[in-house]
């Protein structure tokens, strides 16, 4: 058992933690064993466990240089060099290639006093030195080369700023507010039954005129054209690319083509479109079918009129494809391949069920498939291009309307196990582990999100490039980025696939490096960062958020204690995003009516009757606090909304978000954590068009009161 404990420690698996109630929890040896086995460790006998321990204890010694070193700007540029004692070189030449192409070089002489560590390994004695390189580098991604005789070593140097970008860095000192929108749920007079980027472009001036400095959005990640019912934005196909259903096809010149107009004017199309617009929930299957059909006709026109004539519009598309590189091409190939496989056999919805020759993107079979389906692949590239053009236009519309931030995007904590991301680079993930959360107030049985975690060792071996790519993709065309479950940069609750969420443990990540890279990309993109720190939050996360100036996430409904009103400056600090409720919680009306508690009863989401009764009692206590604080008349939901929003708006929090659902007294949730097919998550639309909603006297009055409470 001691061997297993040592292996878990080296593998980054924690055997204890502090739960959401502040109490210590110990993970059983059996559960730890399950997590280690899912990570690929053989625990069948002590010999194999000992071999794993030896490998983990010594493997870092067999690299002369680690793949990457992350150093804060203005700190000494120090790197660790390791050499076998028998063949150690003392004279080294160094060369630094900065990301802007500058070349710096010099020489170093190592002495006995420079040895910082020594290890006796099976292949002899190894020595570790700290090299001090006498240069000061600007923040960015640089390349270090060390040469001694025949030895030539390389390492990525990432130089980072000390903190993330803040609004005051661009002379915005006011407190800001804006709606948090589930884009697909946006009901407008123009869209096709699903909110789109065109809606954002058209609504930006109205929101800005109401005093809003941002529009918060759900993750915009690419989903699954072949499986439109898999609609969770937090279980995406790729976090690097966009959900092309959000493209407003009517904005593009190809939409005016004769073939397109003939299709959209047909009786059948109009009838289906009207049904989508009138539906209370997003009809993903029909919306997807309509948009794919019209996109195909538009692309055919684009091929004939633009690509064949090599017009400037065609060249812009080709530049986009070229810049997108392998990750974009692999995504669209996977989309087409998945669609073809699923059409043949509904059990082949994921790449793990594909025939073996299609389970690797670089296989000859996949290459041949891509050649045979080039038109379908090009159409998917075209759809991505339209979405990116319109996302950029939406951000520009926000800024031109006077918003300080514009679009506020959301980065999901992971990707689906059967996604294009995992198909393209399966080695990046522990595919037999599933990310989630231990039991807490919101989910007493714990949560299993069905997402594979990164393998932190592989992440570091790739010099953190997958993480960098994620940040760069999601900070594009955004003034702020919310990091879903920011604790993932420090640790992730992981359970073996097929086990319950209670049979998991935390796996550690290199948090200092990841936060430093987050600060670098935040500064480069002038993007404020919000860390969603809800649930089981270790003290170390709070320290890291403070150190790197990542905004905390404070939710009014989770702060129903007398002390939160008496000490609101501490509850809602300046460096935070404050919101009344969230997409994972009931609306304010649903909360007051206890719809969420009744729904959890119906869906059997309570671990015991005692826990259910405790939560009912807690809700009554919270409602009593609200009644007392705001002198609420019973059943006056408009007063509940008004008082809660004005209170949150008046807090010191730099950002304040509100849900449009609350403004119009919606009582049903958009998502119920801990469910998948049991509840229609991510489908409910707003009950009336946003254009009408924003013209309502009661909504305008509340928005004016929020603006005034913000001091603007």
Would you summarize the structure shown here?
The protein has 24 helices and 24 strands.
Essential attributes:
eight-stranded parallel beta sheet; globular; Glyco_hydro_77; five-stranded mixed beta sheet; 712 residues; 24 helices; alpha/beta
List the topology elements.
Elements: H1 2-11, E1 16-18, E2 24-26, H2 29-38, H3 46-58, E3 68-72, E4 78-84, E5 91-97, E6 103-109, E7 115-121, E8 124-132, E9 140-148, E10 151-160, E11 176-181, H4 197-209, E12 214-217, E13 221-222, E14 238-242, H5 258-264, H6 267-278, H7 284-307, H8 312-344, H9 364-372, H10 374-400, E15 406-411, H11 420-424, E16 433-437, E17 447-451, H12 456-461, H13 465-475, E18 480-483, E19 491-496, E20 505-508, H14 511-524, E21 528-531, H15 539-548, E22 552-555, H16 562-566, H17 568-571, E23 576-579, H18 588-593, H19 595-602, H20 609-630, H21 637-649, E24 655-659, H22 660-663, H23 690-693, H24 697-709
Parallel strand pairs: 3-10, 11-12, 11-24, 12-15, 15-18, 18-21, 22-23, 23-24
Antiparallel strand pairs: 1-2, 4-8, 5-6, 5-9, 7-8, 9-10, 13-14, 16-17, 16-19, 19-20
Number of strands: 24
User: Helical stretch count?
Assistant: 24
Task: Note the main sheet.
Answer: 8 strands, parallel
Q: Ranges with pLDDT <50 over ≥5 residues?
A: none
Tell the overall outline.
globular
Fraction of residues in helix: 25-40%
Radius of gyration: 27 Å
Helix-strand makeup class = alpha/beta
Q: Average pLDDT, to the nearest integer?
A: 95
Strand content: 15-25%
Between the first and last Cα atoms, what is the distance in angstroms? 61 Å
Oligomer: single chain
Question: Strands of the largest sheet, in order across it?
Answer: 21-18-15-12-11-24-23-22
């Amino acid at each position: 058992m001691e061997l297993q404990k040592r292996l878990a420690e080296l593998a980054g698996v924690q055997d204890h933690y502090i739960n959401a109630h502040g109490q210590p929890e110990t993970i059983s040896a059996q559960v730890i064993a399950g997590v280690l086995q899912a990570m690929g460790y053989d625990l069948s006998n002590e010999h194999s466990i000992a071999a794993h321990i030896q490998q983990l204890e010594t493997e870092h010694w067999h690299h002369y240089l680690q793949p990457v070193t992350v150093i804060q700007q203005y700190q000494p540029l120090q790197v660790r060099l390791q050499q076998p004692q028998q063949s150690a070189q003392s004279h080294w030449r160094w060369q630094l290639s900065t990301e802007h192409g500058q070349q710096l070089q010099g020489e170093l002489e190592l002495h006995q006093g420079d040895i910082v560590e020594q290890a006796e390994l099976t292949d002899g004695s190894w020595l570790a030195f700290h090299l001090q390189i006498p240069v000061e580098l600007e923040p960015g991604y640089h390349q270090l080369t060390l040469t001694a005789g025949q030895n030539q070593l390389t390492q990525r140097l990432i130089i980072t700023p000390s903190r993330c970008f803040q609004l005051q860095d661009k002379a915005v000192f006011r407190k800001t507010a804006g709606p948090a929108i589930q884009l697909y749920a946006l009901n407008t007079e123009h869209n096709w039954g699903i909110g789109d980027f065109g809606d954002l472009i058209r609504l930006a001036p109205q929101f800005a005129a109401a005093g809003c400095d941002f529009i918060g959005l759900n993750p915009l990640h690419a989903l699954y054209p072949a499986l439109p019912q898999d609609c969770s934005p937090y279980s995406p196909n790729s976090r690097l690319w966009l959900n092309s259903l959000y493209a407003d096809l009517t904005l593009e010149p190809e939409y005016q083509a004769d073939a397109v107009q003939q299709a959209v004017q047909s009786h059948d199309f109009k009838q289906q479109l009207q049904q989508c617009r009138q539906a209370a929930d997003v009809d993903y299957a029909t919306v997807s079918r309509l948009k794919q059909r019209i996109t195909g006709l538009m692309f055919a026109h684009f091929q004939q009129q633009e690509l064949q004539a090599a017009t400037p519009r065609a060249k812009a598309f080709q530049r986009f494809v070229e810049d997108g590189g392998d990750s974009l091409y692999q995504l669209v190939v996977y989309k087409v391949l998945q669609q073809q496989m699923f059409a043949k056999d509904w059990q082949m919805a994921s790449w793990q069920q594909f025939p073996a020759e299609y389970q690797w993107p670089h296989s000859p079979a996949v290459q041949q498939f891509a050649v045979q389906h080039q038109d379908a692949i090009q159409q998917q590239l075209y759809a991505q291009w339209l979405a990116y053009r319109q996302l950029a236009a939406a951000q520009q519309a926000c800024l031109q309307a006077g918003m300080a931030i514009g679009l506020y995007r959301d980065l999901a904590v992971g990707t689906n196990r059967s996604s294009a991301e995992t198909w393209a680079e399966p080695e990046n993930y522990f595919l037999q582990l599933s990310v989630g959360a231990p039991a807490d107030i919101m989910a007493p049985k714990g949560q299993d999100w069905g997402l594979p975690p990164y393998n932190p060792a592989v992440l570091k071996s790739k010099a953190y490039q997958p993480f960098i790519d994620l940040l760069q993709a999601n900070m594009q065309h955004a003034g702020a980025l919310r990091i879903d479950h920011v604790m993932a940069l420090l640790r992730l609750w992981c359970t073996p696939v097929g086990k319950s969420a209670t049979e998991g443990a935390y796996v550690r990540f290199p948090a200092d490096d990841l936060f430093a890279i987050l600060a670098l990309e935040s500064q480069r993109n002038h993007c404020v960062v919000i860390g969603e720190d809800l649930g089981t939050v270790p003290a170390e996360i709070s320290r890291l958020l403070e150190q790197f100036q990542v905004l905390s996430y404070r939710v009014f409904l989770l702060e129903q204690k007398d002390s939160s009103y008496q000490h609101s400056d501490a509850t809602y600090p300046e460096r935070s995003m404050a919101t009344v409720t969230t997409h994972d919680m009931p609306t304010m009306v649903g909360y007051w009516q206890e719809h969420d508690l009744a729904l959890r009863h119906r869906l059997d989401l309570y671990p015991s009757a005692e826990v259910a009764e405790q939560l009912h009692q807690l809700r009554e206590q919270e409602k009593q606090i609200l009644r007392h604080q705001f002198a609420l008349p019973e059943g006056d939901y408009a007063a509940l909304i008004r008082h809660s929003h004005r209170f949150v708006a008046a807090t010191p929090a730099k950002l304040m978000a509100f849900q449009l659902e609350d403004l119009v007294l919606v009582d049903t949730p958009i998502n119920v954590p801990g469910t998948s097919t049991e509840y229609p998550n991510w489908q409910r639309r707003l009950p009336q068009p946003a254009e009408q909603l924003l013209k309502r006297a009661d909504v305008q009055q509340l928005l004016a009161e929020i603006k005034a409470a913000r001091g603007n």
